[in-house]
């Protein structure tokens, strides 16, 4: 009887999870066919690596044409205050709020700027991406189901081996084994499917764009730093100084995110606010997705040093998250997540 109840409970949970996963995947808008020329470079960068990729591509492009200067140790300065689109405007505005010109801080501000966050919203409306909030409760259910089934099976096996659970006939552990396997497998698969930000249509768009601009990537005469970063990574940049500084900023962001997530006192209290913070929130199965950038906790919560924001968020230099005039995190949420001198989150792509 207990084995039957366990089997029924796990089967019901797995069936519900599968049904909801299928509905969420199929609920994404069906994208219209577009030629590669109809996509903006920033949209492709967002599909390839999220807000960090957009930020790095914009900084690389503005450095290449002389509007920005990036040098050691991670300092950015303006040479020409000229912007040609909202993303580049966000770079200049964010740099104006970064008195020390820190590349690390600049990247954080730009990533959570409304101009960059709005790119993700547009792509989600067109069916090329899924919003971080889409299916979040079911990703959590999948994680719980996987953990409970796996841990329960191990516990029952240990109790059986030690003689605590016995009896005649088929051992209890073998009676619940099919249910445990079913719950674990469906939990892992559904969580992976729901955790994918980019839809197949979005992946195809990046592939098509890369194919069309293949010559521009290899020809020295037409090489664009912004295009190289958007479709590839900062590691492909020919400018050694720019490449090294961006790579260092990315590593610092990933390290800060990983350090703040593990054992942080504020992670549980800010998890709910992160759920609505926009496109910088990392996927549940990767704390450093898109460089682990995320929105921080509530007003006055300390970040950096010994404490951090929740859900993989981090801040630099011990400043507080969500304290005052920063750029908003996510155009739809409208919450403010960064202070005037620093901000939460990190960079990329990690990106993903």
From TrEMBL:
The keyword rRNA processing does not apply. Residues 304-315 have a biased composition (Gly residues). Residues 304-352 are annotated as: Disordered. Residues 316-343 have a biased composition (Low complexity). Keywords: Membrane, Transmembrane, Transmembrane helix. The keyword Isomerase does not apply. The chain crosses the membrane at residues 6-25, 140-166, 172-190. This is TIGR04222 domain-containing membrane protein.
